[in-house]
Amino acid sequence: MFSLEIECSPSQRDLLIAELWEEGSAGIVESEHGLRAFFDAGADRSTLMQRFAAVSWRQEEQRDWVAESRRNWEPLAIGEQFFLVPEWRDDPAPSGRFRIVVNPGMAFGTGRHETTQLCLEALERYVRPGRRVLDVGAGTGILAQAAGLLGASPVWACDTDPDAAAVARHNIASGVFIGSVDAVRAGVADIVVANISPEVILQLASNLLCCLRREGIALLSGFERKDVAAIESEAARHGGAVLEACYKGDWALLVVGGKLVGGD
């Protein structure tokens, strides 16, 4: 048994954890500057170090590192209505909260990142029964799942990664497709939620606003405070206006009102 020390930013952790599980990690724990991932002795240490740009490795005593890792994943209450529980726990949701099961080893979207929490809290404020919601870059589909629990219908989710789309399809059953918002017809959604990188939001800004129905809104996150001005400017260029800005630490979410041109 050996472990790798891997430095990463908070925004990279969810995806990196999923990739480490896929590579057969026996357990993962978070550290101050990144992650420590444990592997059985037969794993190819050199290849793993190169792939994940590990800064160091060390020999470990033989222990149940899966159990050790899982002990670090406690249930998490978010906003007023959500209760996120790792799939290996059976904790019931407190009264008045929706229980969402998450798997930290599957795809981005465990709910522990600030941007996911910002999106969940925004969905609480804006989703009403019967509103049409589109989750762009869905990852595990946690945001689409949350929208459905809040009464949104129909709910669609898309991701360009086939593996992520498969995970989302497992979690929300229907309305999931492989692709992006540029494949969606204009004026279809009351709410678009996109928790993706600032570069992709800037690239897709026109499409994100175009697929909104009349007076629809886009909930945009996945970026830091320093990116807000650029995203606000690009949204304005395509007829959008920032209605609200929310922050958790260095991370941001913008509520953007779309053009008054949508569908029915």
List the helices and strands and how they pair.
Layout (H helix, E strand, L loop, with lengths): L1 E6 L5 H10 L4 E4 L3 E6 L5 H7 L4 E4 L5 H6 L5 E3 L3 E5 L11 E5 L11 H13 L6 E4 L5 H8 L5 E5 L2 H11 L3 E3 L10 E7 L2 H13 L1 E13 L3 H10 L3 E8 L2 E7 L7
Parallel strand pairs: 6-7, 8-9, 8-11, 9-10, 11-12
Antiparallel strand pairs: 1-3, 1-4, 2-3, 5-6, 12-14, 13-14
Please name the CATH architecture of the largest domain: 3-Layer(aba) Sandwich
**Beta-strand segment tally:** 14
Counted by DSSP, the helix tally is 8
Structural class: alpha/beta
Tell me about the biggest sheet? Answer: 7 strands, mixed
CATH class of the largest domain: Alpha Beta
Helix fraction by DSSP (H/I, runs of at least 4): 25-40%
- Low-confidence runs of at least 5 consecutive residues: 260-264
**What amount of the residues lies in strands?**
25-35%
Strand order of the largest sheet: 10-9-8-11-12-14-13
Terminal CA distance reads 60 Å
Would you write up a description of this structure?
By secondary structure, this protein is of the alpha/beta class. The protein has two domains: 2-70, Alpha-Beta Plaits, CATH 3.30.70; 109-257, Rossmann fold, CATH 3.40.50.150. It contains eight helices and 14 strands. The chain has helices spanning 13-22, 45-51, 65-70, 114-126, 142-149, 162-172, 198-210, 228-237, and strands spanning 2-7, 27-30, 34-39, 56-59, 76-78, 82-86, 98-102, 133-136, 155-159, 176-178, 189-195, 212-224, 241-248, 251-257. The strands form three sheets. A seven-stranded mixed sheet has the order 10-9-8-11-12-14-13, with helices on both faces. Strands 2-3-1-4 form a four-stranded antiparallel sheet. Strands 5-6-7 form a three-stranded mixed sheet. α7 (198-210) runs parallel beside α8. The radius of gyration is 19 Å and the shape is globular. 44% of the residues are buried.
